[in-house]
Amino acid sequence: MIVLALLACGPDATAPATGQLAFGLPLVNDGQLYAGVARVDITPSITETFDDLDGDYYFDGCPTDPTASRSSCLEPFDDANGNGRFDAVWMGGWGGGGRAARGVHDAIYATALVLALDGEYLALVSLDAVGLLEYRTTRMRQRLDEAGFAADRVVVANTHTHQGPDTVGLWGNLDELITGLDPEYQASLEDAVHDAVYAAATTAVPVAPTQGAVNLVNLDPAYSGAPFGGTNPDDRMLGLVRDGRDPILVDDQVLTLALDGANGRLATVVSYSAHPEVVGYENDLIGADYVGVTRALIEDDAGGTAMFLPSAVGGMQSAHGGTLPAVDEAGAPVYDDAGERVFITGDGYEYARVAGTLVAQAALAAPVDDTPWDTLSVRSTAVMLPLTNLGFQVALRTDVLDQPWDSLVTSNECPGMGTDPEVIACVSTGVWHLQLGPISLGTVPGELLPELFYGVPAEPGMESAAARSTDPRFPHHPAACDDADWSTCREQETDGDCACEDMHAAPYVLSYDEAMPALADTLPGPYRAVIGLANGYIGYAIPEPDYSSIANAITGIEGNHSEEWYSGGSRMAPAIQDGWLALEP
What we know:
By secondary structure, the chain is α+β, with helices and mostly antiparallel strands. About 15% of the residues lie in helices and about 20% in strands. It has a domain of about 45 residues. The chain is globular and about 70 Å long. The two termini are about 25 Å apart.
């Protein structure tokens, strides 16, 4: 596998000799931090649309019937090129697919930040995409490697916007096994990443860093519901996150890195968790969701180019369907005639504006630590992720996903292959640890549940199912499950009167290995965060003890375990945990 060759040097990777790297990036031992940033527009061209006759934002026609002449084909489409097929730009995210873009709300981008310090270097790339599978990111890194920019020093992440094109393949029409991918668009993303890294490296200048982090739960009581000591009318809101999966454990940290050169602000990097899905699924316009708002406000205020990196977005970290404290166009809180705070509920572009504004305000307030960097290090190790999700097998075997079957590992290099009937193949990928002065970042090729990073609080509901009926962290837990046995529930639909799709592991732990630490504990320094959906995307990383074997696309069971539908499988989190431990200093 290509990726194994790229990662062979693993944690002992060394920088090239002092001098200049390809693209002219300075590699000199002068104690000076250099940075360059560049942005490439990746907004797709929309050439064919459809008549949304029922107003549900989904295409209810047939992809080979432009005029909807057949009785089962309810909506016609504009066959602009006359090939008899609907050449749609399918939008990524939300259920089984079928959203075809009918316009553009705001541009989407590939943004690259290149850093160099004392001979060490790194390229961080962020794409406004729902995700890129390992096959595509490996091609991107390999192309840069061939140009002299080592592949193991490139991290390609995705903002996870649900308003961009389908870059995975899941959101065309799965019922008819129609992929949501456009091969030409996928290839254009490779060009965009190469060009953005090239432009960033060739324009690198000396910079001074400033960094900091804030937890939203501490900023404003309006950001959290009453059970968590706040004033938000939604009891499930915690630090602007409405966690959709029990237990309510969130990543509400906004970590910010500001880089200033001789001419002012060069770049601002923001790490945050909540899904860019707050516009909702009743939308057919391409855009970056609240992320675009956050970046624009930061750039208007501080100058330079803003980059967004997703953190632990799994489990389900989102503000969609929740309640946010309203702010006006100037960003000031809105109050009613009685002097009470006004809240906004739901989804849509106004909701996204409010969400993006609140995150931008936190990001702009965060960087107060001007400690100079004495370290820039990049370490990586190969990771085999065993796939056990049968839905993935169907999608991979039918070429729906952007991961050819022959790019997978089906030999005995894949743990469990040939001995465990649940393992269908392995994705050969990797994890990275990045040390940027006082900032430590670790990558995950998917959507990490925050508890895997931060750990589980020592509370009664975490230990015992019987304590959950009155525990605000378990709003979905039914009293009928107080006495249920999780070892039974993870394998079948009911345990007595308990609907197992709404129960979670009891006790709720991170691993069957009692010694397994929270991933944050493997990183040094005062500022620590995950980079999610990085150098691969294999869905949700769920604590293995809480992984439901019965919740999947084959059975149709989901409940409070819908993340299992979109996870590579129960072995994903353990493989990532082991990879991080291998990189521990």
